[in-house]
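haha ok so turns out i had the wrong file open the whole time. this is the CORRECT one, sorry everyone. sequence first:
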Amino acid sequence: MSLDINILGADEFRIKFISLQCLFLLGICLKIKMVLLMMLFCLPVTAASDDDSDSIEATTALTLPVDSVTIYPDGLMAVKREGILDVTEGMHKFVINLPDKADKSSALLSVSNASQERVVYEANPVYTLNITSAGAQSFALSYLMPGASSWQPKYDLHLKDDDVLIRANAVVMNLGGEDLNDVWLKLVSGLPVSQPYPQAKVQQDSLRSYALAAAPQAEAVEEAFMESPSPATGELETLYIFELEGRKDLVMDKAIGFPLFELEVPLIRVYTWDAYEETSGPVREEIRANNTLSSPWPTGEALLYKEGEYVSSIEMPYTPAGTNATLDLGPSADIKVESKLADYNVTENIKVVESKDGNHTIKETIETWTYNLSITSNVDHNVSLEVIDTIPAEAKILSVSPKPSEITATSLKWEMQLSPRLKTAINYSYEVTRTESLAVL
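then structure:
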């Protein structure tokens, strides 16, 4: 009985030993499987990381000096930066440092001997470029900064007998957040708009078109762009660029004036009188100066001087090349004028008018108006006077002397040359007929 027990104990021990061996082998197999799985997942990542590090030669944070700025009428600033950097051949990443006000999506980077692989628009754009030739490469960067600037023309007008000396300055404000030193400056002028256009209406497509005007290859593009309507508003039909001579310094947040142009042009002095609005005057004095430049005169404030003394502040209107700017100098006592109703008559007639519905009785009223416009020159030289008077749209002219230079449905206009101390007059009459239905017979 005891022998049997020993045998049973040995078998039990053998069974347990074999079980432990199996469990040990199973554990080893599981560990090997886990290691293989880990290697399977890690190898592609490691390979990809090794490939990326092998392909990218360097990552460089790039800050280029500003070369030129172009300022548009709505405050948009187009910036162009240029520089030279030694670069090795191969793939490179460039992190482009831009000002806070820059529109990141408008950034355009051009590098010599390089092709662009991709652009990642993060806080600052990251360009991946393939440099095909090692050495010094030319970098050109352009971008847009909405609301980062402003400019206005200011005029000094010095009147002489037969001409006027015009001095124009451009007052520029740099609101871009940094000083701009030693830069080329371009100022864009256009036709005046009816109202300021909100910044929210400047869409990305519009910003892109501005960016093309500031891009390195934009000399040909810029000319074509300036001749086309502005996509920002549709209201600036013509744009003109003033390129200032020499490089300029634009200190941040300071108004700085630069000479725009200076010229002496012939002028015509004209007096005007609206006899309907100002029955007893006064006449107003105007000068009309011809723009002999190839560029327009932008709208701006003008200070008027005569014989070196300040006279008044007026507005210079937008004046295209080859046209006249009309400047209102204000009321004048050089010519005395007065409009009077010389005669007024009313005639009434009762008439019977036949119709298919029966006979109608109407009252016909004819009013006849006669005006006398007296004019007296108080100066010792010949002067030009333009007179305009308003008449009813239904008026029928009966007589007029002298003959008007222009007649419309509601106005008469005379262009007169007055001799020194001349007294003259304009006389005209018209009638207005009105009818009123009285009864049906």
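Residues 335-440 form a domain with the Immunoglobulin-like fold (CATH 2.60.40).
again sry for the mixup
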